[in-house]
Amino acid sequence: MLEMRGIHKRFGAVVALNDASLSVNEGEILALAGSNGSGKSTMIKVLAGLVAPNSGKIFFDGKEVAIHSGTDSVKEGIATAFQDLSLIPTMSVQDNILLGCEPKKNGFVDEKKARKIVLELLEKFHIDCDPDDYVQTLMPSTQSMLEVAKAVYRKPKILLLDEVTASLHYDEIETLFGIMRELKAEGVSMIYVTHRMNEIFQICDTITIMRSSNTVISGKVSDFSLDDIVYYMTGARPEHSDTVAEKAEDFADRELVVDVKDLAIAPKVKDISMKAYKGEIVGIGGLEGQGQSEVIRAILGAVKPEGGSIDYLGKKTKFKAPADGVKAGIGFISGERNVEAMFPIRPISENIFAGNSAKNRMFKFLTKKEVRKFSQDAVDKYNIKIGKLKDPASSLSGGNQQKLVVARWIAMKPNLLLLDDPTKGVDIHSRQEIHDIIRECAANGMTVIISASDTEELMNISERIYVFYEGKVAAMLAGPEKTQERLVSAMMGINENKKEELAE
Amino acid sequence: MSNKSTMEFQSNKDFFSRVNLFVQTHTALMAVIIAAILFAATIIINPRSLNLVAIGNIVLLTVILSIPAAGQTLVLIGGGMDFGVGAVMSATAILTTYTMRGENGHFLPVLLISIAIGVVVGFVNGFCSVKIGLPAMIVTMAIANIVTRLQYILTQGVLSGTASPLLASTVKFKIGGVIPHVAVYALIIWPLVFYILNKSRFGKQLYLVGNNPTAAKLTGIKVDKVRIISYIFSGVLAAFAGIIGAAYMSTARCQIFDGYAYDSLIATIIGGTTFAGGSGSYAGSIAGSLVMVLLSNLLTSLNLASPIRNVLNAVILVLLLMLYNRGKAVRQ
Hints:
The complex is a heterodimer.
Chain A: E1 2-11, E2 14-24, E3 29-33, H1 40-48, E4 55-60, E5 63-65, H2 70-75, E6 78-81, H3 93-98, E7 104-105, E8 108-109, H4 111-124, H5 140-153, E9 158-162, H6 170-185, E10 189-193, H7 197-203, E11 206-211, E12 214-220, H8 226-234, E13 256-265, E14 269-277, E15 281-285, H9 292-300, E16 307-312, E17 315-316, H10 322-327, E18 330-334, H11 337-340, H12 348-357, H13 368-381, H14 398-410, E19 416-420, H15 428-443, E20 447-451, H16 455-461, E21 464-469, E22 472-478, H17 484-491, H18 494-503
Parallel strand pairs in A: 3-10, 3-11, 6-9, 9-10, 15-20, 15-21, 18-19, 19-20
Antiparallel strand pairs in A: 1-2, 1-4, 4-5, 7-8, 11-12, 13-14, 13-16, 16-17, 21-22
Helix pairs in contact in A: 12-13, 12-14, 14-15
Chain B: H1 2-11, H2 15-25, H3 27-45, H4 52-77, H5 85-100, H6 107-131, H7 136-155, H8 165-172, E1 174-175, E2 179-180, H9 183-198, H10 201-211, H11 213-218, H12 223-249, H13 260-270, H14 282-301, H15 306-324
Antiparallel strand pairs in B: 1-2
Helix pairs in contact in B: 3-14, 4-9, 4-12, 4-13, 4-14, 5-6, 5-7, 5-12, 5-13, 6-7, 6-12, 8-12, 9-10, 10-12, 13-14, 14-15
């Protein structure tokens, strides 16, 4: 019914899709699987008309169609429930569901009919809310269900579901699957993106697996085992072992720098405990959004934990703001550099000096020379390619911007350096340089906690890896247990799934 | 990048875009050029306006405007806006004339009370807009309204008192008949503001906060504190400007300097500071103040009726602002 062939998409130097393809038949549920950054979300966005591919063809019932915009996509009978919700927080539930396709009578919105439709939908999806409630007042899981209800209301021929179950509860997922089966019986085709392996086996008929921007394999779900899927997603066979758990540590002679105990931060972090010793590089692994960012920010003082405690250098932290963390000798490097690290219109020199300017007394005399020397040293030492120091930071390439942010903190000689996916969208060469800098610092006694979405990167740089899954530590890998295979299976929560299956 | 932008510059034959690009990369210089053009036009229209008294007056008015403009610059760079500087100026001007009643020897108490008023108003403005998160434009206007109403309660709307002769002489007396004494205040205020913006960590933090508050916070800067301090500076500088204004006018009625709220804002924008925050310079704001004074001077020399003059003044300012804020031309 729907077929995508030879889709290519580049974002600048980053290749998001390279000769990707998929096809789905009438009344079929296709699972689109792949690890972080494999391109599955981009595929969905191409179909939804949000991303225009550089090349490639889309066929609908054998006829080629062009999808240039969201409107084109809707015209072809495609409806999408997005991972990052497309609901408008300041509008009511009813207005959100009907938005753009309100039932009309004499050119006006038929309020009676509209209310009836919405109430029926809410009933069908077991959503417990009033049609007049504002979306922003609802729980994240309710919002996700609404997102699906909105897509279903459009009576699509093809329904795209992009990680809608990520924030859903068990019973909500059951409801959703019931509705999906109904739609399937009506002949609706669905493309279902999920990180949860067991869901694929529960609901999907066929599967297309993507790895590093490519389609690796397609086929019937019944022809695949769990291990096969993981293998095609990661290129590594998962290794099963019951010993993937925190083992007794042999760090008695090393100073404990960070000790996180039973940390909880709604909604993502449920129960995280981890330790980091002096001069150690500790990795945090996991699929996207398993609570990694929140834990790192909580250590810095940017997020307030709701439960548990964080000890830093043997004392319980009471950071009210990142300023307190920075004062205590903590540095933070974010991979979301545009939002969280760069000052694009300010000069390169000020950008490097930023962490330093946050310290010391506010009105102390500061010479231009001091700023220039500090930044020039960092530029030379870390080999950042710049024009002039007074050029705006936006003039740098992505990799050099990230090196700038790294240099900003390293030059401050922090006691503890936190990195949240620091090499996201950074070219391979700069990535290598950043790794070298981090290793050198750790060798000199700096403690490093780094989260990374790239498993290979994580394997390379960290001594020990805590793997997060659904807000909990699924495994702590160190020494001989630190293998790509174990990392992958822990990331997928496979051990946990096995347990669940046994329980059933 | 500089190469790239020159290339883009050359390939772009459209005259207006080129002017626009120049304006956006040399904002402070542009303000000086506009000032020169306005002054030249005034002399051509009325050659008699080229005299020492007139020039002395231009200096004096520019200095007075440059003081609230300093506060405005600080607040705008930090990503805020202060519509309350005019009301604070009026309040301290009234305080000055009421307290001094034409006698010398009250300067210190006047100065201290004025600064206190500036600190309080600035803090309230900052607290409401930064901590509570109300829109800066609305909050500062509302607080300004309170300050204005208090003036009426205090004075019952009646004019009373004058600035002390000594204070008045510091503004009106001219060295060699040309340079007004008020230049001495400029010698204190201008370097002070320059120091705050360019030679202190606070200045660096202020620019970073204005450009990207999220990044600033995660870098360890106390974003709220920095922003509130910028409002306090604005209040104090306006309070000081009110004292000098009282010296210049001798007497002060309620709301006498309210117009300075808009004038200081426009002078600052003309000087290259943006509404978006994170960029701008005090040198630009001083040049912008000069533009404002010279423009009103030019229109006065045209011998037009006052309402028409005001309309023309406003139209020219709108045109200037359009030239300045037509979006970023250079980078993506």
